[in-house]
């Protein structure tokens, strides 16, 4: 039975969850922009206090590995590594898109719906009409690989031909709704369903039981795309 601190900072949401045996027992999160560096350790301390545990009681630290925001991922992974080093605990990484899909599956079950009737397409906002996305079935098998995709009327055409509706979730879903709903009635949008550390818990527990840990010293987030810094708008600078 693992006690795991789960950290999710791949999007604007800053989320920290404490899970025991794969189930969330405490959660702190905010959707306030640029709050990760300010809130993440405070959230962790509050969770441990609420649960009546010391940090040394933890068995592992789990972090959402991306894809997602470059800055958010750096903050989350750096914080997770800091906990691992100071507490001498193993590091677990969880894919952000897979975590979102898993969370949606659990939500459907709670709503009395059958996950096997759907396919799941988590989307993380990149820029303009671009998203980081993949498609999963109800067993979390990846049936469309993770990629950065510019969404247009031809996106997901092959999947819209299938009998199962495609559920779009995550902070990149809302901007794609108008384009994709014009193409197919099989496009179902739950754009208010955002990344959260609580969705990481079952996947982190799975890896914990299988001893699938990262090399803390060398682990890096899954950025998917290289970070390109913008040119500062300073007079006289070319």
Care to describe what's here?
This protein has 238 residues and is α/β, with parallel strands linked by helices. It has two domains: 3-96 and 196-209, ATPase, nucleotide binding domain (Nucleotidyltransferase, domain 5, 2-Layer Sandwich); 97-190, Nucleotidyltransferase, domain 5 (2-Layer Sandwich). Helix content is 28%, strand content 27%. It has helices at 36-51, 70-87, 96-110, 157-160, 177-181, 201-209, and strands spanning 3-8, 14-20, 23-30, 60-66, 91-95, 119-125, 130-136, 142-150, 166-169, 187-190. The strands form two sheets. Strands 3-2-1-4-5 form a five-stranded mixed β-sheet, sandwiched between helices. A five-stranded mixed β-sheet has the order 8-7-6-9-10. A hairpin with a 4-residue loop joins strand 6 and strand 7 (130-136). Helix 1 (36-51) packs across helix 2 (70-87). It is globular, with a radius of gyration of 18 Å.
């Amino acid at each position: 039975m693992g006690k795991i601190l789960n950290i999710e900072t791949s999007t604007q949401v800053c989320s920290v969850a404490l899970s025991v045996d794969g189930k969330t027992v405490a959660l702190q999160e905010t959707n306030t922009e640029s709050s990760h560096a300010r809130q993440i350790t405070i959230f962790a301390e509050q969770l441990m206090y609420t649960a009546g545990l010391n940090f040394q009681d933890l068995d592992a630290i789990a972090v959402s590995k991306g894809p997602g925001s470059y800055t958010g991922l750096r903050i989350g992974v750096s914080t997770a590594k800091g906990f691992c080093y100071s507490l001498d605990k193993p590091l677990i990484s969880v894919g952000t898109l897979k975590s979102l899909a898993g969370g949606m599956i659990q939500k459907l079950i709670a709503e009395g719906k059958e996950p096997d009737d759907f396919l799941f397409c988590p989307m993380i906002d990149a820029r303009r009409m671009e998203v980081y996305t993949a498609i999963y079935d109800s067993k979390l098998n990846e049936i469309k690989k993770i990629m950065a995709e510019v969404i247009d009327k031809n996106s997901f055409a092959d999947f819209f031909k299938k009998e199962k509706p495609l559920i779009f979730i995550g902070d990149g879903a809302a901007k794609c709704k108008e384009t994709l709903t014009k193409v197919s009635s099989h496009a179902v949008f739950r754009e208010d369903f955002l990344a959260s550390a609580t969705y990481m818990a079952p996947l982190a527990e799975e890896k914990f039981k299988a001893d699938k840990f990262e090399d803390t010293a060398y682990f890096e987030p899954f950025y998917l795309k290289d970070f390109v810094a913008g040119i500062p708008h300073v007079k006289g600078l070319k």
